[in-house]
Predict the 3D structure of the following.
Amino acid sequence: ELRGITLSDGNLDIGAAVPLAVVADDPGDRTAFAETVESAGSAVGSVVAEALAAIPEVLRAAAADLGAPALRQRATMAGNLANASPAGDTVAALYALEAQVVLASVNGERILSVSEFITGPGRTLLADNELITAIRIPSPLPGWGYWRKVGTRRANALTKVSAAASARLEAGSITGFSMAFGAVGPVIIRVPAADSLLLGKTASDLEGPAAERLVQAIVTAAASHITPIDDQRSTAKYRKTVALNLIGEVVLSLASHLKENQQ
């Protein structure tokens, strides 16, 4: 069960022991995982293949940016969550997906939002007698995702700043939007007031001067919530500047997706 991936009623559950290499779709790893499951029966294998295909792009990209291939063979999202670092790569993506964590103990099961589960740097609501059994991406799954990690190097680097976003789309309109920033506060930062500014927008709303005004409004709404620190990896000023600049990149990426998929 801890190594399972299931898609049920639109909810995607990723077992706590599923390696990040599978989530990231590292070359060969997802295929090997599916083949292992298929050995239990073709029906089971087809269900897993469907669930693997449903992993949101923002989560795949964040998992692929975490560490080196050898590390991703052993590391898991559950471990990333339990570590509760504000610089955790998959943690930022899970915040943007409004994900949930499934916990189990002898007393039963409980489900918390990821943002509720993490209470501070290195702190969570995991009880002494509990374990994480799965990460749940609730229905409806997003139709678009964005991920950007800024570090000292292009690979195998700790995060200086990260930005993750996901959107639900219907008939060319944004019906749901969520953005999260990593390494710019004591926990992953979300700003619902900024997210709401994109609701109902279409491709035409994200072009030209209107898009520039919208980006500035989002930056203004988010600025006071982004409160990074100086440390050995970067400065607070650099982190905040980059985080706010990434908002424009998020909107540009979403606008491009909407335009490409216009009916």
Notes: The mean pLDDT is 91.
